[in-house]
Amino acid sequence: MGSSSQSLEKADIGSTHEHASSDLKAESLVETDVAEERRIFRKLDWHLLPFVSLLYLLSFLDRSNIGNAKIAGMSTDLNLGGLRYNIAAAIFFIPYCFSEVPSNVLLKLMRPSIWIPSIMVAWGIVMTLMCLVNTYKGLLIARFFLGLAEGGLFPGITYYISLWYPRRTQAKRVAIFFSAATIAGAFGGILAYGIEHMEGIGGLHGWQWIFCLEGIVTVVVAGLSYIFMHDYPETATFLSVSERQHVIQMLKDDSNNLATHFDMKFLWQAVFDYKTYLQITVYMGVLVPVYAVALFTPSIIKELGYSSARAQLLSIPPFVCGCLMTIVVGIYSDKTNIRGPFIMGGAFVSLIGYIVLYTQRAPGAGYAGAIIACMGVYPTIAVNLAWAGGNAGGDLKRGVVIAMVIGIGNLGGICSSFIYYDPPLYHHGHGTMMGWLALTIIATCVLMWRYHVINKQKEELCARDGIDLSRKDEFREMGDASPLFRYVI
């Protein structure tokens, strides 16, 4: 009995050691996988994000430099009294909005390294030729074609990022490239301040040189994009064979192997999904303030009592603060895998900023309100786009949803162009911003509630019918309606 009990004890100890050893090996494998995944993400980030951020910086700079040109003398030279400037700012958004869905469909049919540089060349040429504009009518025509050419870039890059990264990691990446818009706002002020001093060179006004030089830079970068832009993980030359396989498998697992091929039914899935329109409402509510900030911040600061030159320079800090907050919020949104609460929080902070702008007359307080408004509203755009794209199942539906959210949402830019018409306090403009931000908060609450309800229903369905990942191919073409797909809240 003594020897048998001793042998049993030894067997138990040996078994315990074996279990402990296997647990340690499993933990080590998990740690190795996580480390390898992080290394691959860093590699993707270094090869993709700086370049697409530069492209979007140029895009936002070219569409919003009209605000800097206005206070640099364009308003006087082209006789932009009354609502003329507002109309010139607004006309951009009409072709811009309607070109976005067709552009993302073409991006799916063509290679990104062909389509995106091509639209850049088009708008870069338009931007450069705007230096020859010397009438109000010419300005309207130029802004129309600028919007038509530029429309595909923002939804195109947002969709492009979704083809490389799983859903849980997209907010930070969209935030990094979107932060280029805030840098463009700051950079535009510095550039305009310097370029204004070229007044008279070559027979052009300073504001005409703003258009000319920024347009030439866009064309040059577009030419380089044909060479340096990567298409898809499957063809990425900067990844090894094993790294490409890892990324492809990671994306398949993230989407539960949903369809990636082109089929018009996936387009209609996006068009007839009510959640798409709720996402559009959320996006429009924060985009109207973003465009208002870009188009009118120099003018608002000037009306606070500063000179034109100082207004150009003082327009920089609000955008820098917005840039930093965009990246910080994007990182934490990915870490927590939460989207809605960050959108609501940002909209609320921006609402406080506009309340300050509405109620305060002192230049210092008004300027602080502008900074708070930027810090709140800019981060919401990146998180919202990651939310909309990540909750649309299947490649084509995701591309169409992103394009619809950005395209229809950008119609809000027309509103942004017409509401700042009552200087120096701009009560109508600031009051309208407050209304749009409140709409975003309400629509976000509704969307979070719907996603929660649908996720619960899917969990109950899977438990009742024994549906698990082994059956994922059965639901391949259902998009996010698949019972295995879970919405991020």
Automatic annotation (TrEMBL):
The keyword Membrane applies. The keyword Membrane applies. Residues 1-20 are annotated as: Disordered. Gene3D superfamilies: MFS general substrate transporter like domains. One of its GO terms (molecular function) is transmembrane transporter activity. It is found in: Membrane. It is a multi-pass membrane protein. SUPFAM superfamilies: MFS general substrate transporter. Its main location: membrane. Pfam families: MFS_1. Keywords: Membrane, Transmembrane, Transmembrane helix, Transport. GO terms for cellular component: membrane. InterPro entries: MFS (IPR011701), MFS_dom (IPR020846), MFS_trans_sf (IPR036259). The chain crosses the membrane at residues 86-107, 114-135, 141-162, 174-195, 207-229, 280-301, 313-333, 340-359, 365-387, 399-421, 433-451. Residues 48-489 form the Major facilitator superfamily (MFS) profile domain. Residues 9-20 have a biased composition (Basic and acidic residues). PANTHER family: PERMEASE-RELATED, TRANSPORTER, PUTATIVE (AFU_ORTHOLOGUE AFUA_1G01812)-RELATED. This is Major facilitator superfamily (MFS) profile domain-containing protein. It comes from Dentipellis fragilis.
